[in-house]
Design brief:
There is one protein chain. By secondary structure, this protein is mainly alpha-helical. It is built from four helices and no strands. Helix 1 packs antiparallel against helix 2 (30-46) and helix 1 (2-26) packs antiparallel against helix 3 (48-59). The longest helix is centred in the first third of the chain and has 25 residues, at 2-26. It is elongated. The model has no long low-confidence stretch (mean pLDDT 94).
């Protein structure tokens, strides 16, 4: 249950990453490189909520199942 709810912030972070990547394609020079590096970093950060949600779900420590 926690895994499915962790997909919501991961999706929001991934969309922000796509906007950063799109904006970096319109830039020139060093800003383009910085934008691509930042976009890759945001995509890596977007994997953290599903990994945490999977861990909490698999260990049985999900508070949502107790509340529901």
């Amino acid at each position: 249950m926690c895994f499915f709810f962790s997909l919501i912030p991961a999706t929001i972070i991934a969309v922000i990453g796509f906007f950063v990547l799109f904006a970096s394609t319109k830039a020139e020079g060093g800003v383009r490189t910085l934008g691509r590096i930042l976009a890759i970093w945001v995509f890596i950060v977007a994997t953290f909520p599903p990994m945490g949600g999977a861990y909490v779900t698999l260990t049985g420590a999900c508070p949502l199942t107790e509340m529901l």
